[in-house]
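[Meeting: bench + compute handoff]

Bench side (C.D.) handed over the final construct sequence. Compute side (W.E.) agreed to return the predicted structure before the next meeting so the bench team could plan truncations. Sequence as handed over:
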Amino acid sequence: MRYFTRLPLILGFITLGFIVTGCGFHLRGVGDQLSSRFEKTYFSETSANNSGFSRQLKRLIALNGGHLVAKADAQLAVNVEPISVKSRQVALTSTSTLKEYEYTYATVVTVVDLTNGVQLGSRRISTSRLLQIDESSGLAGDERKTISQQEAARTLAQSVIGYLQSF
């Protein structure tokens, strides 16, 4: 008799196990390496304004199997244009104290095969962030904006890596 009372519980755990292993969330980021073309990669940026983003992107290229070298030794060049930031006000309270902004961060990434000078691809990659700022506490708003920019740089760098993995 005890067997029949535990049967629904056992079936529930088995079903949950199938769902968890079948959805693929545990595979995210595993095996997503850059192709062998990125073994000798030259990283070029056209602006020093991208410093946090560039550091993050260089780190991700190295973590995903790419190796950064000088231009003379490289097979591929990854060119990154300056990040453009566009903001728009989304919401405002009746007392004009809490504002919500949407920031869109975008860059253009171009991949060039340096052995024959052929452009392999170019894509505009962007990410958006919502930011709520309380105007009565200006310092906290600046800190939130800085944190949001850092998060956007990380997300943008991960999106660029996703694009580079298509080569």
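W.E. noted at the follow-up: The mean pLDDT is 79. C.D. will use this when planning the next construct.
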